[in-house]
Amino acid sequence: MDLDAAFDADAFFDAELEEHAQVAARTRAALKQPFIRWVEMALATIRGSGKIMFFGNGGSASDAQHLATELAVRYRRDRAPIAGLALTTDTSALTAIGNDMGFDQLFARQILALGRPGDMAVGITTSGRSPNVLIGLDAARTAGITTVALTGRDGGDTLSRADLALVVPSETTARIQEMHIMLGQMLCGALEIGLGLVTEEPRA
């Protein structure tokens, strides 16, 4: 079936990729040092027998699961597991917390139950204003857990609630999410190499 004549798919394709490229370029310029700091913090977490807990809502929940799986299973190649956990997958816990304590407590309750000093909590929120992510970061700090936020726009309230915030310089949710999964996968690759689990391959 032909697309509506009013919709220019060719122009749409080019515009989306151009916006992605522009946001990627701005992310490269703005977040190199924060990313390096994140890698350093994550290496210290894993070397200290801690774990990295990821959490977020909607698409960010999917990112949390994606990244936790790549740490626990593999990113580039088979190697020893890295302790990664998503707080978005236990339907019994999620529904019990939401029903009995309220949606805002969804991640905080799990962090207080499962987290330990020396762990890392990574809250993912494109706006920087998701109440349950912010409360989760607060709970982690209370428990002596390192806090990191993956966010966008102006960073929102994560700037005062996280030890480190990686703020993607974009106002577009889709582009922010694309940078989040890229930064997260870069973290997985950096941890594999930094922990000596894989050898870095030369790039063409």
Described by the principal axes of the CA atoms, the overall outline is: globular
Which stretches are poorly predicted, pLDDT < 50 over at least 5 residues? none
Overall number of strands: 5
Largest sheet: 5 strands, parallel
Radius of gyration, whole Å: 18 Å
**What strand order characterises the main sheet?**
2-1-3-4-5
Approximately what portion of the residues adopt beta-strand conformation?
Answer: 5-15%
Helical amount: 40-55%
- The class by helix and strand makeup works out as alpha/beta
> Terminal Cα separation, in Å?
42 Å
Number of helices: 6
- What number is the mean pLDDT? 95
What is the H/E string?
Answer: HEHEHHEHEEH
| Chain oligomer state | single chain
Helices and strands in order:
Elements lengths: L8 H39 L4 E5 L2 H14 L11 E3 L4 H10 L5 H9 L5 E5 L6 H12 L3 E7 L11 E5 L4 H22 L10
Parallel strand pairs: 1-2, 1-3, 3-4, 4-5
Please characterize this protein's 3D structure.
By secondary structure, the chain is an alpha/beta fold. 52% of the residues lie in helices and 12% in strands. α1 packs parallel to α6 and α4 runs parallel beside α5 (131-142). It is globular and about 55 Å long. The mean pLDDT is 95.
